Structures are given as structure tokens and as C-alpha cells.
Amino acid sequence: MAYAEKLVKSWRACWKGPDGKLLKLSGFDTKKSALDHANDQEADIRRRGSRANSRSHMSLEEWALDWYRALDLEPSTMERYLSWLQNHVIPRWGDWTLRDLQDADNDVARWVKDLEDAGYARNSINGIRWMLYTLCADAAARGHMSRNPAAVRRGRGRVAPKRKQRQQERAARGAIDPLTAFLIAERTAVMSGRGDEFTLTTAMFYTGVRWGEAIGLERSLLSAEALQIRWQLARHGSALQRRDPKDGSVRDVDLPPFLADLLARQARQVTHPAAVGEWCPCGEGEPKRYRHPPGIHVFAGVRGNPHWRRTGFGDQCFYPAARGVLYPTQQARRPVYVDAPPEGREIGIMDRSTRTYARPDLAVACWAPLAPGMVLHSLRHSHKTLMEELGVPSPLMDERMGHSDGSVQARYSHPTEGMRRRLVEGLQERWEATLASRARMEPHSPVGVVDGLLAPYRDCCSRSTPDESGCRRAPVRGIVA
């Protein structure tokens, strides 16, 4: 029933929406005007319901397909929605009519519990349930349903699983310090057998760019002062599309001198696989507006692939480096083994077994995890945390991360050249301190680019010059290009 509420200087109209929730609108001068507006809203809801009675008998599958065809979203979002619909929502609810579904609250709750018992991740369950909620909410807004059975009332349900999920997410996405990031980047290069992956991982940590923006970085958009983030390579099915950055976050990312040098070196020496035709084969079958010429990017894939894929890079390089585990989500999961070194040499911190087939019986050690549970996106979280440690103002942090802040404070705050200079200087200082710490651990590296970076620090770590930190000089081992 519609009614009016008295406020301090005005009146508020209150009425029930199609889903039974109480809706409110304030700002009316008199009680009568507020009550008239509330009554009009309820009358309009009843009219829409009577007009749509015939559509309430349609099945959810019919409604879902009609609803999906009207969407205009990013291809990756459309693909995700279609996967949720085809694999979960329609198989379970497709033959239900909208009229029957509107009172199926208990059935929906049992369905969600079945998904939990089946072992689906919490984020996957939330996405699947959100898909059903959105379908029903849009149907209710058009008068096809009187209420939404997938709506979750606040304060309902167990608190412990939700709190545990948040704790797990924080632990998985926890920030790492620059030295840990350096060691992870060095390990990725050891795993791939080349220095490109060291530069890629280091660039992601010190710029905070997303994965698609990192592999989509083009050589023509790289300068000595900044990265120009104009494109990303986003997965669409089995192909990669050259698209605008997420949410249109086009921006320039200021570079400290060390990173500008690393990226310039990478752009000069990167080797792309030969391609036939004017388009890169990564976008085969995609519209021309999503394709790009071959060989224009700063980073390339391995074994003849034009680009790394997120899963391949994670399983083959990043997860072994961060977690000390190869293929952590597959049956082939195993540690990164370390074989016995040649006689007369100690085990180096970057040594590992290079055999094609794992031989645990011949291993003398394995890589210890540097950041257990870490995911690739954690590098972006770590960069934001690093900027907060350096005291970077929020306007510059938001610009650098590609975030949008709609608050009043953000409207009147802008990045300045002084802010940028202090940020670049702070990142450079952290890098130099990290190099010194890494050299004290071992002044050589099997990764060529890292071995060159450590060269200026070797004198202070040699046996001829005693060092109170106890740094030892290791013999030069095989250098990876």
C-alpha cells in the first residue's frame, strides 16, 4: 500500500515495486503530492502486470534467449554470460515458466547449495546466481514476473563461509614486496629459458597494467618516459582480439629509468614468429576491426606462438615461479625439482632440473614457494600497494591504474608533474635497493639480462672484499639468453 513519510523539510513517497521491495522517492513539498506519486507508481505497476500476463507463461529459456540477443556488451562479457546460461541456468530452469519461477525461492536456494556441494568455486557460484537474478529482475521490471526468487535478503545466511571467502581472496591477492617480485620474475625467465618473461613480469609489477594490456603493448607506443596504454589483447573463444582497454581506460603510465631501459631492450631484441599475410594468426576468424598486423608487440609467445595465453604463462612460468609448483590446477601438478650440481659447486638459488620427465628420485631439493596462492592479477594489487607505501596521491594512483573516481574530491584533484617525478624517483630507489639485496643473495644469475643488472654489485660481494652481510660469490653458470 502506498503512503507518504514526513521528513524535516519535505515529504517522501513510498510504494512497493514489482518484486515486493519498498521503493522511496523524496523531495515532495506536500503530503498529497507525495501520496499521489506513490499511488501512480503502484497503478502503473498493476497496468504493466495486466498487459504482460500472456508473457508470464513463456519459459525462462525463451525469455533468456530474447534477453541475451538484446544485450550490447564487450565480447568477453557476452561470452561469459552465454556460458553461464548454457551450462547452468537454462539446463536447470529453462523449462520453468516465469509465473512458476517467481515463487521458487526455496528451489533456487537448494540449487545454489547443490552447486556448492559439486565443488564449484565461490566466485563461480556467485556469478551463476547473479545471472539468474538479473534475468528475473529484468523480467519483473517489464511486468512478466511479480517478484524475483533469486534475490538475497541482507543479513540472511551463514556469516562464516562469506568471511572465509573474503579471507581467502585477500590471501590469494596479497601484495608482495619488490624483492619477492624480482625473484618471481627471475624464476619465470628460468622456466621459459629466455629473459623476455623477466621483463614482462617486472613491467607488470612496476606499472600495474593488466595482463591483456601487457601482452598487447605495441612497440610504437613505447617511449623513454611512458607507456601509452591504447590497446589490449583480450581472449574471445580460442582467438585474441585487439580491443580498447577495459572500461576505456586509455592512459599514459610514467616509467622509471630502469624500466624504460628494460622495455627498450626488449623491444629491440624480441623475436616474433614468421606470419603469412597482413594479419596476425592470433585473431583468425575474427572481424577485421579486432585484428592487428603481425610483429608489432613488445612481447611474443614461445614455441612459434605469436603471444602468450594467460593459462599457459601461469602454468608454465608464473605459478612455478611464485608457488614453486608446475601446473597447480592439473593432474600433472608437481614441484619444481632441483638436481644435484656438478661436483665442487653449491646449489644456486635459481638452479632447477631441466629434464623433460620429472625424476624425483634424482632431485636433491625443490623450489620453495615465494608467494603461495598468488595469481597473476596480484601483481596489479602489489603495484597499488607499493604506490601507497611511497605516498603517491590518489589522483595519480587512479590515473596510473586506469580507475575512475566519481567523487567530488576526485573532481577537484589532478595529477601534477611534481607527483609524477616523486613517483618515478621512488620506484627507481626501490629497484636499486632490490638489486643490491638480490646481489647479496648471489651475485650471478642464469638469466642473461639479470646477470648484466647484477654486474655493478659483484665487487662488494666478492670473496676478496669481505662483506658483513655474508654474500658469497658463486661461479658463473650457464647463461640463458
TrEMBL record:
Residues covered by region (Disordered): 150-172
Spans traversing the lipid bilayer: none
Record-annotated Core-binding (CB) domain positions: 58-140
Basic residues composition bias: residue spans: 153-165
InterPro entries attached to this UniProt entry: CB (IPR044068), DNA_brk_join_enz (IPR011010), Integrase-like_cat_sf (IPR013762), Integrase_recombinase_N (IPR010998), Phage_Integrase (IPR050808)
Keyword list, A-Z: DNA integration, DNA recombination, DNA-binding
Recorded family membership: Belongs to the 'phage' integrase family.
Name of the featured protein: Tyrosine-type recombinase/integrase
